[in-house]
Description:
By secondary structure, this protein is of the alpha/beta class. It folds into two domains: 6-251, Aldolase class I (TIM Barrel, Alpha-Beta Barrel); 259-342, Four Helix Bundle (Hemerythrin (Met), subunit A), CATH 1.20.120. It is built from 17 helices and eight strands. It has an eight-stranded parallel sheet. The model is unreliable at 328-343 (pLDDT under 50).
Amino acid sequence: xxxxxxxxxxxMMAWTDRHCRYLHRQYxxxxxxxxxxxxxxxxxxxxxxxxxxxxHCEHPVAVQLGGNDPAALAECAAMAEERGFDxxxxxxxxPSDRVQKGTFGACLMREPELVASxxxxxxxxCSIPITVKCRTGIQTKGDNxxxxxxxxxxxxxxxxxxxxxxRVYLHARVAVLGGLSPAQNREIPPLTMDKAKTIKELHPxxxxxxxxxxxxxxQTEELLQWADGVMIGRAxxxxxxxxxxxxxxxxxxxxxxxxxxxxTSYQDYAQSFxxxxxxxxxxxxxxxxxxxxRPGARRFRQILSDQTRLKDNDSSLIAEAxxxxxxxxxxxDTYAKQFTQxx
Length: 343
């Protein structure tokens, strides 16, 4: 029987596109995958509906929307449901300057009532879950930490839970708006998992998924003693086998995987997109970290970065690159030779 705990791969701009999600699904059959943030403006006015494209194998998959207008978010939520997504998430956590200029993301935490209105409007337009991803608070110059206290976080969570939001993804750091880059906002503000734990205690029926600095099984197991799930960010991208470890630990102790089979599947997948006009670089960039720390990993990355072959859409470089890696996982040894001969 599968665990009722949830493992998710965080929405990451420029990273978790459909190709990345396909790759991550090969490493974990059960993890909930997320799109990059998609703005309501891109869907409604830019007509960029291709941003909702996804492969059937990606399920369960959620779309994250960026916006602050309840009506626009509701319309986009209905579009997402029509396109087959399993969940719609509202971005109330991104601290980037670009997102702030659009008055959404983390700066929306200042307006709990507005976020609650967005949740209600979206729920009225579709039947799939409407969820929120936020921080534990925000800090701006001169605000006297008004929006970074535990009292404020309790108010914010209370508002959205009262609006019917049943699942919250909580990045257990405040977001510093102004003065820190998005990358610095993932590292400099300290993690405060104690705040997340308190929220769970105050709202036991709220499904609380924690996010922030989760990089290993030991951390995950400790958090899952009280949290309903974990959301993995860059650790999933830089070491996708971590997803397989979580799959085995949390969902299926008999789960095994073969990197030979994963790369074979991904090469076949890539070839189908190349035939439709995609560029090889948009597909191979997600493979670059697959063998970090393994013998041959540097040469693996060099081959995948060959600009001439990338320009020529020469997908055989995937097999050649794999041939440079010396598998250290015993389950890989029986596959490596077969894989290189397959191409």
